[in-house]
Write a structure and sequence with these properties.
Layout lengths: L2 E6 L7 H9 L4 E4 L8 E5 L2 E5 L12 E4 L4 E2 L1 H13 L8 E3 L3 E2 L2 H14 L11 H9 L12 H22 L7 H15 L3 E2 L1 H10 L4 E4 L23 H6 L8 E9 L2 E3 L12 H10 L11 E3 L1 E2 H11 L3 E5 L9 E10 L2 E3 L6 H6 L1 E8 L16 H14 L3 E5 L7 E3 L5
Parallel strand pairs: 1-10, 1-11, 2-5, 2-10, 5-7, 6-8, 7-9, 11-15, 14-16, 15-19
Antiparallel strand pairs: 3-4, 12-13, 16-17, 16-18, 19-20
Helix pairs in contact: 3-4, 5-6
The chain binds inosinic acid.
């Protein structure tokens, strides 16, 4: 059995947790391959609601092994807190595996994230302030601290000293902050070592062995296509590659092992943080989408920006990720609208444009061109097959499928685990 990638097709928060959770029953492994605790998955099982930031949502599926791959940046304090919180609710986390090559977020990364955002003023990215960007910057700059360094105290000290030599200069002289003591970070991080040791392993070997045995591996992206550092709305992006190529690098699985890439796409659009968003609604309609969809960040609690479905983004996600299917989420949130606009093209400087512009300036100037579809008023949460849906809801799905360029193979009609229409099985 091959590997499957699940990836957000828009700006994140598409409801990936629900999709992963649905497939988790069939998967032997559920892997996170990038990002850190900037992510937020909400999974609803029965009456219980779980908000996960760092752990793969597969942690809630007893039959599967959750894996944090080498491409993830880990804040150990947050990880241990999340594990403890789940254990207190009776969730077994003992099967968790963490790559020894994954990088660690440290207190100086968090501090630098916050102060540099403050210094950017109006040009700020609107980061989650969790130290994600600075931790990835150190990885690329080859001064990062990895999980395996926790198990070698003298190496850990050497690496912390090396990193803090520069950071403290910047913190004190540029940002006017106090320096960070090597000894304090060392003591705190050595404290994490013994707790993390049982989980740490060569996850690339583990996953490749599983694939060789014919087991199903699910690779779960965080954030979304347009937050990708290479393919997103740079610089208003996260610092890793959520897109499908990142699944291979961030887990140590070759691309030939992946045969399905599922894009999770919301029936409308949201984004957190700054940056262009052509279909954004700044009026009462946007407020209504936010309220009906509960569009407040799982990680930061920030109100999400809201807007109509944008087919150019969906088509772009198909192209960049090689999507084989879409999982359309939150269709129920659109119940009650008389008309539902869908963005089919942009107008940029008086010209119609059918693909996402390659220039950021053009993207900032893009104005949506809409087609309006008739809405529906019946509650659709109990629908379990397409034929249970009102005709106009079916027509909306069909239209999205036609203009987006990949089949809508599953449709979310409510937050619960079972509130899904499976049009075509993924495995
Ligand atoms: P960072 O990942 O904290 O560096 O933030 C960079 C950008 O990505 C900001 O606009 C964040 O709001 C956004 N972002 C990061 N993680 C998520 C997520 O899980 N969902 C939606 N937006 C996110």
């Amino acid at each position: 059995m091959p590997a499957i990638v699940l990836i957000g097709a828009q700006w994140g928060d598409e409801g990936k947790g629900k999709a992963t959770d649905l497939l988790g029953d069939k998967a032997a492994y559920v892997v996170r391959y990038q990002g850190g605790n900037n992510a937020g998955h909400t999974v609803v099982i029965g009456r219980e609601k779980y908000a996960l930031h760092l752990l793969p949502s597969g942690i809630l599926t007893p039959s599967c092994v959750p894996v944090i791959g080498n491409g993830v940046v880990i804040d150990p304090a947050v990880l241990l807190e999340e594990i403890k919180g789940l254990n207190e609710r009776g969730v077994d986390t003992s099967k968790l595996k963490i790559s020894t090559n994954a990088h660690l977020i440290t207190p100086y990364h968090r501090t630098i994230d916050k102060v540099s955002e403050r210094f950017l003023g109006k040009a700020k990215i609107g980061t989650t302030g969790r130290g994600i960007g600075p931790a990835y910057a150190d990885k690329i700059n080859r001064i990062g601290i990895r999980v395996q360094d926790l198990f070698d105290p003298s190496i850990l000290r050497q690496k912390l000293e090396g990193a803090l030599r520069d950071k403290n200069q910047v913190l004190i002289k540029v940002f006017n902050r106090k320096g960070i003591e090597v000894d304090a970070v060392l003591a705190e991080y050595l404290g994490f070592a013994e707790i993390l040791r049982p989980y740490a392993t060569d996850t690339s070997l583990l996953l490749n062995n599983a694939l060789d045995k014919g087991e199903l591996v699910l690779l779960e992206g965080s954030q979304g296509t347009l937050l990708d550092v290479d393919h997103g709305t740079y610089p208003f992006v996260t610092s890793s590659n959520p897109t499908a190529g990142g699944a291979s690098t961030g887990s140590g699985i070759g691309p030939t092992k992946i045969n399905r890439v599922i894009g999770i796409v919301k029936a409308y659009t949201t984004r957190v943080g700054s940056g262009p968003f052509p279909t954004e609604l700044l009026d009462a309609a946007g407020e209504k989408l936010r309220a009906d969809g509960g569009e407040f960040g799982t990680t930061t609690g920030r109100a999400r920006r809201t807007g109509w479905y944008d087919a150019l983004i969906a088509r772009y996600a198909v192209r960049i990720n090689g999507l084989t299917d879409f999982f359309l989420t939150k269709l129920d949130v659109l119940t009650g609208w008389e008309k539902i606009p869908v963005c089919v093209a942009y107008e940029i400087n008086g010209k119609r444009v059918d693909e996402l512009p390659a220039s950021q300036t053009d993207f900032h100037h893009a104005k949506p061109i809409y087609e309006s579809l008739p809405g529906w008023s019946d509650n659709i949460s109990s629908a379990r097959k397409l034929s249970d849906l009102p005709e106009n809801a079916r027509a909306y799905i069909k239209y999205l499928e036609e203009i987006s360029g990949a089949p809508m193979s599953a449709i979310g009609v409510g937050p619960g685990r079972d509130e899904t229409i499976v049009v075509k099985d993924f495995v």
